[in-house]
């Protein structure tokens, strides 16, 4: 005679709610998350306001180039760099990986950039 054993089946456990990703703030918009997570660079409030008021949008390709430039400057030991990207000039804190300010080509004439120790031409 064959013996049949029965096992009690336990109901599946519902997965716990996923906590928000580390560093993501409630209500944070896509551009801010992209800037901080994917590109690895942050934009100061001042730089964000300057870009927005001048209707300057960095393309994903420009963001990649900007990050590459920041990485090169970091590799050379730079702390604060003037990054010239297409028609833009950006002052970047290399240590904090933060764009501090931005200016368009039209604003570059007769301008003086201070407190920088390097320049990156992209």
TrEMBL record:
<dbReference type="Pfam" id="PF12611">
    <property type="entry name" value="Flagellar_put"/>
</dbReference>
<dbReference type="InterPro" id="IPR013367">
    <property type="entry name" value="Flagellar_put"/>
</dbReference>
<protein>
    <recommendedName>
        <fullName>Flagellar operon protein</fullName>
    </recommendedName>
</protein>
């Amino acid at each position: 005679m064959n013996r049949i054993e029965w096992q009690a089946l336990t109901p599946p456990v519902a997965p716990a709610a996923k906590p928000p990703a580390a560093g993501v703030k409630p209500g944070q918009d896509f551009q801010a998350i992209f800037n901080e997570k994917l590109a690895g660079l942050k934009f100061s409030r001042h730089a964000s306001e300057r870009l927005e008021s001048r209707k300057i949008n960095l393309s994903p390709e420009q963001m990649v180039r900007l990050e590459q430039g920041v990485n090169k400057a970091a590799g050379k030991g730079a702390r604060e760099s003037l990054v010239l990207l297409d028609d833009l000039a950006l002052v970047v804190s290399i240590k904090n990986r933060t764009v501090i300010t931005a200016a368009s080509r039209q604003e570059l004439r007769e301008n003086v950039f201070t407190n920088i120790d390097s320049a990156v031409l992209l």
